Amino acid sequence: MSEPPAGPRTAAYRERRDALCWLLLGVAGLALAGLAVQLDARLGTASAPFLGRYKIRIGAGTLLAPAVAAVTLWLAASGRLTRLRWHEIQLFGYAAGLAWAIALALVDGWSGLTKALGSPEEYLGDVRQVGDAPLTYLRHFTADAVYHSVASRGHPPGPVLFLWALQQIGVTDHIVLGFLITAVSVLAIPLVLAAVRDSVGEEAARRYLPVLVLAPYAIWTAVSLDGLVAVLGAAAIVSGLRASRRRVRGWAAIGWALLAGLLIGVASLFSYSAPWLGLSLVCVYFARRRASLNALSGIGALLPVLGAQLLGFGWADGLVAAETDYAARIAPYRSVLWWSAISVVVLLLAAGPPIYASARKIRNTAMWPFLVGAGAAVVFSIAAGLARGGVEHAWLPFFPWLTVAAVAPERPGGDPPPSPLLLVGIGAIVAVVIEALLITPW
User: Fold this and answer.
1) Contacts with 349 (C-beta within 8 Å, 6 or more apart), sequence order
2) Is the model's pLDDT at 99 over the cut of 60?
3) Euclidean distance between CA atoms 233 and 397, whole angstroms
4) What is the pTM of this model?
5) Per UniProt, which keywords does this protein have (predicted)?
6) Which of 57, 206, 326, 401 has the maximal Cβ count within 10 Å?
7) pLDDT for residue 59 is more than 80
8) What is the pLDDT of residues 65-92, one digit of tens each?
9) Across residues 334-356, what is the average pLDDT?
10) What average pLDDT does range 112-128 have in this prediction?
11) Is residue 276 assigned to a domain?
């Protein structure tokens, strides 16, 4: 397929080409997953590439998500969003992203906001173990791992203690709790937009807005405590960018760098994979020639971890316990070879077509530090044999950063392309289809 000469239709041509390449890869990946199921490979699920089961559901709730997607795409294509001021762009991104995530969840009715909370395999079932003694729970968390839910065994105690704190302030209704968790998780959208703006300018951030808002991985953002990790990680990266601005020096730089590390440290108490986002901070500091800030962010990151250690929870001990449980409970029953390939298929589908354009143009953007941290986390997970189902949930903190280069110029220093609305629209269709067919365990 030859490329046409540069002209007004070149960007549209390249977008169609990216969409076609992504579709071919996606179809090939689904065929591979289907083959694994037919061969009765050790997958631990009959719904590969995802975990769950398939059942067609079409109803009033199924129409809400396409309506949200259509309105968002129309506003972006009509140019109405260009008239908004920056804080209005962020507010719109948050509101539209929340509507998208909730609309997808409501395909299952109200249970879309509550089923994860009521599952015995999820965190909420462990809250009763905390009782009136959170410090005792923290001290015995690792030793009592065998008594925890499946979700808690693979994570630090942060998620359970967060839910316990919400119950202490009176948030007990499952629908309210599900909506609140989703509303907090979607805060990642304005934070990622702020990071893009700080790195490559406001115009590119505005064009990236639809990619973030209508991302297919919003299916798993609803009622997800991994979404909280995404928010903490995004806030950390924004803080690191503030610390390393050219004109920010002295106490201001110290404060922002410490805050960036502190947020990574807090995120690490929610997820053992969160420290990978710290690699993005390291790359940002070196790219901006402010390498000394690494020491400050490193100190900030250690504070929550050491604080938890003093209170009785050893982060490293928890990680070892999680890996031991994984090796005994999951590894023998899920083929590492099949899932290593299938997890890449999940990545393609969950991030949508923009991930292909982003991968193609990664060398053309100053946002490469974001892709390094998120990409390293994904590669390590696969290489270490940890990606054996459920990555659509586990990789939520990394998905937004893997598509940032979708709005990068075609060559270094060039003009940013228009917002890739064709890619976004195809991704939205994929999300609606997946939600209508797949019943997830979350």
Assistant:
1) 26, 29, 49, 216, 430, 434
2) yes
3) 7
4) 0.93
5) Membrane, Transmembrane, Transmembrane helix
6) 401
7) no
8) 999 999 999 999 998 888 899 999 999 9
9) 95
10) 85
11) yes
Tell me the one-letter amino acid at 230. A
**185 contacts 224 by C-beta, under 8 angstroms:** yes
Nearest to 44 by CA among 366, 426, 338: 338
pLDDT digits (tens, 9 = 90+) for 234-254: 999 999 999 999 898 999 999
Give the separation between CA 432 and CA 100, rounded to whole angstroms.
10
Whole-number pLDDT of residue 441: 67
**What is the C-alpha to C-alpha distance for residues 167 and 107, in angstroms, rounded to an integer?**
27
Instruction: Report d(CA 272, CA 384) in Å as an integer.
Output: 14
Structure tokens at 314: 């050893």
Range of the structural domain that residue 386 is part of: 13-439
Asked whether residue 51 is domain-assigned, the answer is yes
**Would 341 be classed as within a structural domain?**
yes
Based on the structure, what is the number of domains in the chain? 1
Please state the rounded mean pLDDT for residues 180-192: 97
User: Which positions ≥6 away from 264 have C-beta within 8 Å?
Assistant: 232, 233, 236, 274, 275, 277, 278, 281, 297, 300, 301
Residue 7 has pLDDT above 50, yes or no: no
| Cα separation, 291 vs 270, whole angstroms | 27
3 in any annotated domain? no
As a whole number of angstroms, the distance between CA 58 and CA 263 comes to: 41
